[in-house]
Design brief:
This protein is an alpha+beta fold. The protein has 1 helix and 5 strands; from the N terminus they run E-E-E-E-E-H. The longest helix has 24 residues. The radius of gyration is 15 Å and the shape is globular. The N and C termini lie far apart (47 Å).
């Protein structure tokens, strides 16, 4: 079987400008990608909702979802239904934030 090369639809320089639009219960929310990270063999994506002007929310609210790429490299997300899985992903995300803050202190 021939192995396909993964296609990444964006460059590293473009990643900060990517927006994800979520259709939530009664509203549509535009979000900025904070990071995509791995925890316990699963990829997750952390999104920060933006206000009407495109600014990050002042409350620091973050959405976490499972993250997948298909064989062509096209991304998709899905809800984390299991509370234990969500807590594990949230804990890993918090660790990444702590590591980033620690690294910034060293600079």
């Amino acid at each position: 079987m021939e192995e396909k090369e993964k296609v990444t639809p964006v460059t590293e320089d473009e990643i900060d400008n990517i927006r994800v639009t979520l259709d939530l219960d009664d509203k549509t929310v535009e979000c900025k990608i904070i990071t995509i990270f791995e925890a316990f063999g699963q990829d997750y994506i952390a999104l920060i909702p933006l206000d009407e002007k495109g600014n990050e929310n002042a409350a620091g609210e973050v959405y976490l979802y499972r993250y997948f790429e298909d064989e062509e490299g096209l991304p998709s997300i899905e809800n984390i239904e299991d509370d234990e899985e969500y807590e594990a992903a949230a804990d890993r995300f918090d660790e990444l934030l702590d590591e980033e803050l620690f690294d910034e202190m060293d600079d």
